[in-house]
Design goal:
The chain is of the alpha/beta class. 43% of the residues lie in helices and 12% in strands.
Length: 598
């Protein structure tokens, strides 16, 4: 298989820019697709030969990520965000309107090869949806009028950079600021403070602060840093996990858009403390619009002596950061899957141990921290661990940023000291008739009204940041069904419990939605949760059934009103499936039907 001379000439500069490094495969694939629209088998074979890696590796990596295409999907690739908050805002009606205007079916390419439309998972724009991606660029606040305008631009073949700038506006929507969002950033102050404390002193302050990771797991940051620092191998790496794919979460997007200095300085301080020489920011593919501004910010830090060689005037303190862009894989939010992606592979979670702190990127000691966690590091460097530890609760120190969306008057970011009650958040955002809150996204916990007195804290209701609100008009069955479809789509397929279990859960939810479910299906949903939770390889499968299990227990009437009266209804109608065969045979007599006498 070979590519044309024209395509080869477009690919060669990309390979050269990445120094023909196989570990840069995901970035190479992304840039090649931008240049030639899709990655054919011929193009994949060309890349395999150029990078000196097996064709199977390029093939499997391309096919793993949702934003890579092996066939032409059009010059304009339109994806509608299909998170539950987008559905609540009317995304499906907008999708149907665009499909009608463009005379297209879902997932199909127009006859002239110009455009395709489809759905994708949450795009991180839940506070200003419905949202879409056009060639991976986010467009917010979709309306029927905006759909019509976009259809006209596509039919007129207007380049994206000529579209109205208002389409691409992404607001911060900061509604409540506290110690992080409400404090001005002085470039370099945190780095200079950390250097003044010394490497040992900075680690001591981190221990005193009891800072826990803000990505969801809540692992103590200082413990992670110390394990990496004590690992004998070198070099060491710092990775910022900005693959914010949990439905309903968008705090990291705002931090990267308006607080990038805190994020990057947090990485520099981590490097100073553990002795790392290189860092990566793994940016989710849906945040492509942030890539150039972040690259510009890094260039400014280098010019200011805050990145590169001899940082802060300290001889030998050499550390730099590069940005890797994801390509649409929720599972890459798991730290070992993210590292696999950084190495140019499909992002499937690794078997642990060993853990990244001893054997991470390229088998070397690696710290992986969340965006918000790294911002918190700068606060500790400046103010000290004791100051930080005094805020929040004993087990959950400091503040937490919540991404609030759904049925409320004021969606956006809310920052509170840990320990805030659910009811307080609902009051602040103007959610007057809430019946449920999904905390920490699709993988989190669904709280009913009787639980609104609980608190946001690791010892009560832990969260990665998502806070989706559902009013009395909402159907909690449909909420859980949306999440079931999400997990079935996002499973990496590595382990059988998750690969099979998530699909079975989705199919059972669909069967109930069609009115063919019974008590048998209700029992099966809970049984599947008991298989997924202990049997899955990583957190995706372990938490995939949470929303279904919670809503079955707390909002059971939403399920039962859909159930058939019989004890069991087959999910597959064999006789109906044979209808096409009867049509081809020209028969419809009794003998051609199952269960009927000749």
């Amino acid at each position: 298989m070979s590519v044309s001379a024209e395509i080869s000439s477009l690919i060669e500069p990309i390979l050269q820019r990445h120094a023909w490094r196989p570990d840069r495969l995901v970035q190479v694939l992304r840039e090649v697709q931008e240049a030639v629209d899709f990655i054919s088998d011929e193009t994949a074979a060309h890349l395999a030969e150029a990078l000196k890696i097996p064709y199977a590796q390029v093939h499997s990596t391309r096919d793993f990520y949702a934003f890579f295409y092996r066939e032409n999907r059009g010059r304009y690739r339109v994806l509608f965000s299909d998170n539950i908050t987008d559905r609540m805002a009317g995304n499906q009606a907008l999708f149907e309107h665009m499909a009608k205007r463009l005379k297209l079916e879902r997932g199909k390419v127009s006859d002239d090869g110009l455009v395709s439309i489809d759905y994708c998972s949450c795009t991180g724009m839940c506070d200003q949806g419905p949202a879409i991606l056009v060639n991976n660029r986010a467009i917010t606040r979709m309306t029927l009028r905006r759909v019509d305008e976009i259809c006209d631009l596509i039919r007129g073949q207007v380049p994206l950079d000529k579209w109205p700038a208002e389409f691409f506006r992404v607001d911060d929507n900061i509604r409540r600021a506290d110690m992080l969002l409400g404090t001005p950033h002085e470039p370099g102050k945190a780095v200079r403070a950390a250097i003044a404390r010394g490497r040992d002193g900075m680690l001591a302050e981190m221990k005193l602060s009891n800072l826990r990771g803000r990505g969801g797991a809540g692992f103590t940051t200082a413990v992670k840093w110390e394990a990496c620092r004590n690992a004998p191998a070198t070099p060491r790496y710092i990775v910022c996990n900005a693959d914010e794919g949990e439905p309903g979460t968008f705090k990291d997007r705002v931090l990267l858009q308006s607080y990038a200095g805190r994020v990057f300085e947090g990485m520099v301080i981590a490097a100073w403390t553990v002795g790392a020489s290189h860092g990566f920011l793994y940016l989710r593919g849906e945040y492509l619009y942030l890539l150039q501004p972040l690259e510009a910010y890094l260039a400014g830090m280098r010019a200011a002596g805050l990145l590169g060689r001899d940082i802060g005037g300290v001889a030998g303190f050499d550390f730099d950061i590069e940005i890797h862009l994801g390509a649409g894989a929720y599972v890459c939010g798991e730290e070992t899957a993210l590292i696999e992606s950084l190495e140019g592979k499909a992002g499937r979670p690794r078997v642990r141990p060993p853990f990244p702190v001893t054997s991470g990127y390229m088998g070397k000691p690696t710290v992986v921290n969340n965006v918000e966690t790294l911002c918190k590091v700068t606060e500790i460097a400046i103010n000290g661990g004791a100051w930080y530890e005094a805020i929040g609760t004993k087990q959950s120190t400091g503040t937490k940023i919540l991404s609030v969306a759904g049925d409320c008057a004021r969606p956006g970011l809310y920052e509170y000291a840990f320990g805030v009650r659910i009811a307080q958040v609902l009051e602040d955002c103007g959610a007057q008739e809430a019946i449920a809150v999904q905390v920490s996204g699709a993988s989190g916990v669904c709280l009913s009204e009787r639980e609104f007195g609980r608190r946001i804290a690791f010892e009560d209701v832990p969260t990665a940041g998502s806070f989706m609100i559902f009013g009395k008009q909402r159907d909690l069955f449909e909420v859980a069904r949306n999440f079931a479809h999400f997990f079935a789509h996002e499973s990496c397929g590595f382990c059988t419990p998750c690969r099979v279990g998530t699909v079975l859960m989705k199919e059972i939810m669909d069967k109930i939605a069609e009115g063919r479910g019974t008590q048998y299906e209700m029992n099966e949903l809970l049984r599947l949760q008991q298989v997924l939770k202990p049997g899955s390889h990583c957190g995706l499968g372990q938490t995939a059934g949470n929303a279904v299990a919670d809503t079955v227990q707390k909002f059971r009437p939403a399920y039962e009103r859909r159930l058939a009266e019989t004890d069991f209804v087959p999910a597959f109608d064999l006789d109906a499936a044979l209808s096409r065969a009867r049509e081809l045979a020209g028969r419809d007599d009794a003998a051609a039907h199952l269960g009927e006498e000749a």
